[in-house]
Amino acid sequence: MLLTILYLLASVSFILGLKLLSNPATARRGNLIAAGGMALAIVGTIFLYRQEDGAPLGNYGWIFGGLIIGSVVGTLAAKKVQMTAMPEMVSLFNGMGGACAALISITEFNQLAHHLHQPHEIAIGDIFPGSSAYQQWMGESLIILAGLIIGSVSFSGSMIAWGKLNGKIRDFSFKGQHLFNIVLLLVIIGLASWIIGVHENANSTVFYMIFILSLLYGVFFVLPIGGADMPVVISLLNSFTGVAAACGGFLYHNKAMLTGGILVGAAGTLLTILMCKAMNRSLLNVLIGSFGGAAAAGGVQKAQGSFKEISVSDTAILLSYAQRVMIVPGYGLAVAQAQHVCHELERLLTDKGVDVKYAIHPVAGRMPGHMNVLLAEADVDYDKLLEMEAANELFSHTDVVLVLGANDVVNPAAKTDAASPIYGMPILEVELAKNCIVNKRSMKPGYAGIENDLFFRPKTSMLFGDAKKVLESLCAEIKTL
Amino acid sequence: MLLTILYLLASVSFILGLKLLSNPATARRGNLIAAGGMALAIVGTIFLYRQEDGAPLGNYGWIFGGLIIGSVVGTLAAKKVQMTAMPEMVSLFNGMGGACAALISITEFNQLAHHLHQPHEIAIGDIFPGSSAYQQWMGESLIILAGLIIGSVSFSGSMIAWGKLNGKIRDFSFKGQHLFNIVLLLVIIGLASWIIGVHENANSTVFYMIFILSLLYGVFFVLPIGGADMPVVISLLNSFTGVAAACGGFLYHNKAMLTGGILVGAAGTLLTILMCKAMNRSLLNVLIGSFGGAAAAGGVQKAQGSFKEISVSDTAILLSYAQRVMIVPGYGLAVAQAQHVCHELERLLTDKGVDVKYAIHPVAGRMPGHMNVLLAEADVDYDKLLEMEAANELFSHTDVVLVLGANDVVNPAAKTDAASPIYGMPILEVELAKNCIVNKRSMKPGYAGIENDLFFRPKTSMLFGDAKKVLESLCAEIKTL
Amino acid sequence: MQELLEKIALYQDYVYIVILMIFLGIEVIGRVPSVLHTPLMSGANAIHGVVIIGAIIVMGKADPNNIPALVIGFLAVILGTLNVVGGFVVTDRMLEMFRHKKK
Amino acid sequence: MQELLEKIALYQDYVYIVILMIFLGIEVIGRVPSVLHTPLMSGANAIHGVVIIGAIIVMGKADPNNIPALVIGFLAVILGTLNVVGGFVVTDRMLEMFRHKKK
Ligand SMILES: NC(=O)c1ccc[n+]([C@@H]2O[C@H](COP(=O)([O-])OP(=O)(O)OC[C@H]3O[C@@H](n4cnc5c(N)ncnc54)[C@H](OP(=O)(O)O)[C@@H]3O)[C@@H](O)[C@H]2O)c1
Ligand SMILES: NC(=O)c1ccc[n+]([C@@H]2O[C@H](COP(=O)([O-])OP(=O)(O)OC[C@H]3O[C@@H](n4cnc5c(N)ncnc54)[C@H](OP(=O)(O)O)[C@@H]3O)[C@@H](O)[C@H]2O)c1
Question: Which residues of B are catalytic?
């Protein structure tokens, strides 16, 4: 009964936490508050939860064992993970949650099937006031199956996403895959409803079949989606796990699980959509992965017009004698892990009296805030980072823009070419500056797989090579000046 | 059971409605959605509600009679009320709601007392699973009394507020009134808890005493508050009524009443605070009415320095040959009902090729949006109304600012004098303009009861007289030019 | 205290709904521009007219021979209706004033 | 259909709580700046780790002689804890990156 209050507090802390999390100034506190609520709920459950027969929980050894192992491993993993590998981590943890939900469903299903053969026990755990045994079966098995399916999909899906993000797994799709997925889904639903309907003999083979198929579905659901879209996918799977957790809430009438789960389910879904908006794409478009496909095709497009190259030493001079330099970091900088060198370059130039700033595009990189995280890791002073709007105003007063491994986010097509897939996405208008130097390894397109006119503009000159190497030699040059 | 769904829909419609209401583009739709939900709930209740014994409701004649009378009167009143008298209307309707809640409590209390004398009936209407007769008594009487007290306070309070707004009642307070109020409140609570505790003999005299005292409290609660603060007070009483309605929700386990009531209770409270913020005051400060007091004192302050007057004809010339004129409407314009003449003046000037705009301060007048409503009533083109920020940018390019019955909202003290009660409130910076003509009837201060430096500035010249008369003669003059 | 805890536990569904509604009420109008304060107030005012449901129930339950009960119920219904109908109509009229806002 | 209506009526408290939570979930993160998308995702991820409660219950109920049940429960607890602890820690680390935002 005190437990109810604890759960209530937990629910409130989740809502508050999420609210604070969505505001930069309070985000961290929000996270702590939610964590606190969670702790309350967990401790409360361990010591105050009473079974139907009023007995407290048993197997404390196992429980604490699990908690300790989980905490230690979780903390270590979370502490030592590279900033830029964090989406992977999130994906991994999300998968764990999904798996947990699935396992719960498995146990509860066996319980339920077991009860069925001692009819007198049916009443036990009957969660719905005034519902007959049949209705109970329908209700519980429905919830259990929902938890199983959603949890498993979220688990296997997250694993694939994780594999893709750290490059272990590459995009893969076969003709008619979408059709295949739909069929698979229908089969799963069919089997599930069969179990729910025919409760005389709870057939656990069918149950496990559903389990396997759900895992498969998760795999095939994520496999074809472009690797770069994983942040979106993870956010989606995240909300799935939320719903799975909510199922647990129904099963145990546990309001903390219920509210927490639904909250994440709803917020996660919205967040997914917001993410897509930020890259101006539709969720559907991401899921069907047509975009990822285009990336391949993009490479084929032939370059129009000609571009001019620039040498490292010329670049060094240009930069050193500029009054204001703007650095536009992109995905390439992260790939090359060149954030530290970049920071050094910035310092060298600043010592020479050059005013150096970074122009951060909201969707530069592969996860929202990727560039902030990357540069923060190299201790770049936060005040040097300009949001897109601020940057766009400053470009016209800038002598040199140095584009480091960014491409789509500086692609004028977004403004000019209505046919382009990124049309409408706000971009960094680097052309306004006097000079624009673009560093990348080749003329290959970026994430969106489209040509970039910018490279062929008169003001633009290309500085080919891996970002890290180039920057290193650039720093060396500048030192000698 | 279908009824439950209807109530669910109603609750959702309330939330949605309120959400849409808080955005100018969707506000009207929001209002309609909420109204639709309400209709569902009402119709549903009439035809689908079943009493404990499964019987439908009776007395249809009375019910429909009441509904029809209420609808007709309500619609007429709402349709023919003057735009500027709308806060009064709201206050009136709010009072009705409060009274309704109180009446419900009265009936239910008699019911309850009645049941008590047929112990076997106690179970009837027992709303709390597993609670004994005693607990039932405690629970129900608690809810009933809460509904009675809050409802009555909200009723009598709203009536006073209504009286004040249409000038029937004037501010009134005696020494130690706040103390008196607190004592009164304590007495009420004391009596209430007595009834709740001693359930052997439900003493209905005490009950009615509480009723009377609550009405009194409402009166004394609102009486001392400055008449100009009524919008805030009404918003507060509004949220009271919300809570009272929620009590009904508990009593009948009616989720529509519960959710609707709480929603308004919470939103109303926040809105009240937002209103105070907009005038930059604290709610407490409004309630203790110290401000209203200051208004009296303010008159005493002696004018510093000298001011210069300007004649109507000079004003006419100045305006006619200006390029841009900005009109700053204030409470005085509303008092003088001069919006139509004002619109005529604007048209005359526009015909003369003068660019005329209105600068609208968010809290000009006596209710938020007062000026928008006022001018819209005179069909002023919406595009001519500038929000404060826009206006402040334009003033520096303005030849003549014509301040019509505004005072506090153009008082520089808000920026300069930290001691001033309105310090920190954003104002319209009319001093930026080349000339500033202020029309009011005297040097008397406005709502905040403080001197206004602006009147003594070199650029400023006073044009005394009732706004309506002055504007009429002004229009006449301009025509002759 | 103990008492209170028990109550909360007993009516936890209500407690939850109330708390969530409070959050919603605050979240939902959090960003209302001050020019909309009055219509919003008026709209909220109309919504709490939902108390009319209670009035209808009271009226419908009243014993046809118990005149005072009938009268009180009748009054309640009228007042409640005034709140609801008047409230929504007034709000709509106010918002008409802001129609141009859509531009 | 009838069936459904009955269910909804029967579990209305749950239905209400669910619907309100959905509204809240949407309202609450409605205005998050895109730079916070990742930490927010990560935070939400940690919150749904609340599923650990279910795992603990399963574990605690398991019959000490039923090895498979024990193992499954044990696994569930570990995984759930990973989700919760890892989730919150990672989020906190991410947000450290944005600390300057406070300025
Ligand atoms: N931020 C998010 O949340 C998110 C999530 C998913 C997708 N996206 C999408 O990702 C894109 C981000 O744009 P972006 O400009 O940052 O990246 P981008 O458009 O993907 O371009 C990255 C560029 O970096 C270059 N590059 C790769 N490795 C490099 C290295 N080692 N050294 C130097 N250059 C290297 C590549 O050209 P070379 O191969 O020629 O070197 C590539 O053109 C947007 O389209 C956005 O919609 C963003
Ligand atoms: N908008 C809201 O929600 C709200 C609600 C409550 C309070 N308030 C407060 O109300 C004030 C509004 O400022 P405001 O400048 O609009 O009004 P104000 O400061 O109250 O000044 C109104 C002025 O109009 C003059 N006046 C009165 N009747 C007149 C007539 N017939 N012809 C010409 N002039 C007349 C008065 O001076 P004379 O007597 O010399 O003519 C008075 O100085 C602010 O302090 C605000 O905080 C606003």
Answer: 408
Q: Residue A316's closest CA among A473, A436, A455?
A: A473
Give the distance from residue A40's alpha carbon to the nearest chain C alpha carbon, in angstroms.
16
pLDDT of residue A201: 61
Residue B277, ligand 2, Cβ within 6 A: no
Ligand nearest to the CA of B291: 2
- Structural element, H or E, at residue B196: helix B177-197
Q: From the CA of C28, how many Å to the nearest CA of chain D?
A: 7
Determine the average pLDDT of the residues in A360-379. 84
CA gap A164, A275 in Å, rounded = 19
The average pLDDT across A175-197 equals: 89
CA gap B442, A195 in Å, rounded:
85
List CB contacts (< 8 A) between D6 and chain B: 1
Can you tell me the distance from the alpha carbon of B271 to that of C44, in angstroms, rounded to the nearest whole number?
10
A468 CA: nearest ligand 1 atom: 32
Ligand 2, from B272, B328, B363: best to mutate by most atoms within 8 Å of Cβ? B363
Q: Chains touching chain D at 3 or more Cβ pairs under 8 angstroms?
A: A, B, C
- The C-alpha atoms of residue C51 and residue B100 are separated, in whole angstroms, by 7
Whether the predicted pLDDT of A64 surpasses 80: yes
Q: Which pLDDT score is estimated for B259?
A: 96
Least confident of A80-89, A209-218, A461-470, B91-100: A80-89
The three-point CA angle B141-B143-B146 to 5° equals: 105
pTM score, two decimals?
0.85
Q: What is the distance between the alpha carbons of residues C80 and C87, in angstroms, rounded to a whole number?
A: 10
What distance in Å separates the CA atoms of residue A343 and residue A360, rounded to the nearest whole number? Answer: 14
Nearest-neighbour CA in chain C from D66: distance (Å): 33
Q: pLDDT, tens digit, for every residue of A431-481?
A: 999 999 999 999 988 887 888 989 999 999 999 999 999 999 999 999 998
Question: Rounded to the nearest whole angstrom, what is the distance from the C-alpha of residue A305 to the centroid of ligand 1?
Answer: 22
Estimate to the nearest angstrom the gap between the alpha carbon of A242 and the chain centroid: 14
- The answer to whether D24 contacts chain A (CB < 8 Å) is yes
Q: ipTM value, please give it.
A: 0.84
Phi, psi of A464 (to 5 degrees): -75, 155
Predicted pLDDT of residue D12: 84
Of A2, A19, A255, the CB nearest to C16: A255
What is the model's pLDDT at position A383?
Answer: 83
In this complex, do D60 and A57 lie within 8 Å of one another by their Cβ atoms?
yes
Q: What is the pLDDT of residues A259-316, one digit of tens each?
A: 999 999 999 999 999 988 887 778 888 887 544 444 444 444 445 678 899 999 999 9
Closest C-alpha among B73, B227, B228 to residue C90: B73
A8 and C23 within 8 Å at the Cβ level: the answer is no
- Pick the ligand that lies closest to the CA of residue B165: 2
